[in-house]
Design brief:
- Helix content is about 15%, strand content about 30%.
- With about 325 residues, it is α+β, with helices and mostly antiparallel strands.
- The chain folds into 2 domains: about 160 residues, 3-Layer(aba) Sandwich (Aminopeptidase); about 140 residues, Elongation Factor Tu (Ef-tu), domain 3 (Beta Barrel).
Length: about 325
């Protein structure tokens, strides 16, 4: 059986029999699983959804059941089935699927659902057949906050509720494709490219924070011992790549790899920022030169003995480096509407 294990949870798909027992004979399911499950998850809407899933599963190839059934969200200590989450079917021709979820009310606002949905989304986006996960008809403010926290992007508001999505980041080297999933989201005062500082050196007074997704929080242990950290992130609003660019600090054109311009073949950014504090899964930082809602790919501690070699040439920047404090992004590398 496929299981997703996170810091506090185990999440696994229910078989057709288990899904039916969840609805009709929960005592039997508890005996099989060896731990209790909530009776408060099921309301009229969930009951209707389970019956619809059971009907579809009878006509779904077994290898695709994992995309149709509900997954049980099990709290590990003490073991307890607290919620359900699942997809509405195998990814469509656009490699997209939709996610839905529910939890026992007494376990709301404890971070359980955000940990579960983040992990389940990561699993889906790691499958070759899935590139996008959507959440539709989201009505409750807490659900909207949850989706934003775990890296979903808002699409639209309708009378039926809001719509959100997350996509995997994909990069190609012509022979292999490497798929990256964000580990968190950077929150910044800079809402659009124009006017944003172009390096942390010019953004010393610009503060922000990073929300690390729950399943990666354990990886922050001991990070607070470092004053500065290296952030690797996606230029999520950058224009398509260009091999020859005119950078912000020069009037002449240069090869993209001789610049820090964001319109790169693999749109990865790097910034060294000051780590002001760590509060649970939130990092407070200064020297913020990236845009709000930037997907974070990795964090490394900055160590001068490792990362500050002596240099003897700066190329075309030797004549222009002093402009860093006053130069701002003018939007030239931003996606066009």
């Amino acid at each position: 059986m496929k299981r997703i294990i996170t810091q506090h949870l185990e999440i696994f798909p229910l078989s057709i029999q288990q899904l039916g027992d969840f609805l009709k004979d929960p005592d039997k399911l508890e005996q099989e699983l060896g731990f209790p499950i909530s009776r408060l998850i099921i309301d009229e809407n969930v009951e209707r959804a389970i019956n619809a899933k059971l009907a579809h599963l009878d006509n779904t190839p077994e290898m695709h059941h994992i995309w149709r059934t509900y997954w049980l969200i099990q709290i590990r200590e003490p073991a307890f089935g607290a919620g359900l989450a699942g997809f509405k079917g195998y990814p469509d021709k656009n490699n997209s699927t939709e996610i839905g979820y529910g939890i026992d009310p007494k376990f709301r606002n404890q971070g359980i659902m955000s940990e579960a949905i983040s992990a389940l989304t990561e699993w889906a986006l790691s499958q070759p057949e899935c590139r996008r996960v959507t959440a539709t008809h989201v009505i409750h403010p807490a659900s909207n906050r949850l989706l934003e926290k775990i890296g979903y992007s808002f699409i639209e508001e309708t009378p039926q509720g809001s719509t959100w999505y997350r996509e995997r980041l994909q990069m190609s080297d012509q022979t292999n494709v490497y798929t990256f999933s964000p580990i968190g989201i950077i929150h910044s005062p800079h809402k659009e490219p124009s006017g944003t500082p172009i390096q942390p050196k010019a953004a010393a007074n610009s503060t922000g924070f990073i929300d690390i997704f729950p399943q990666y929080q354990a990886g922050l242990q001991d990070l607070d011992g470092f004053s500065h950290i290296i952030l690797l992130y996606a230029f999520h609003l950058a224009a398509p790549s260009q091999l020859i660019v005119q950078p912000f600090l020069d009037q002449n054109q240069h090869g993209i790899f001789a610049t820090r311009a964001p319109a790169r073949p693999n749109p990865i950014g790097l910034s060294v920022v000051r780590l002001n504090s760590v509060e649970g899964s939130r990092l407070h930082i200064s020297g913020v030169d990236m845009l709000d809602q930037t997907p974070l790919l990795d964090i490394k501690p900055f160590v001068p003995q490792f990362d500050s070699p002596m240099v003897d040439r700066l190329g075309w920047l030797e004549q222009n480096i002093n402009g860093i404090q006053i130069t701002r992004d003018d939007g030239r590398f931003a996606q066009k509407p």
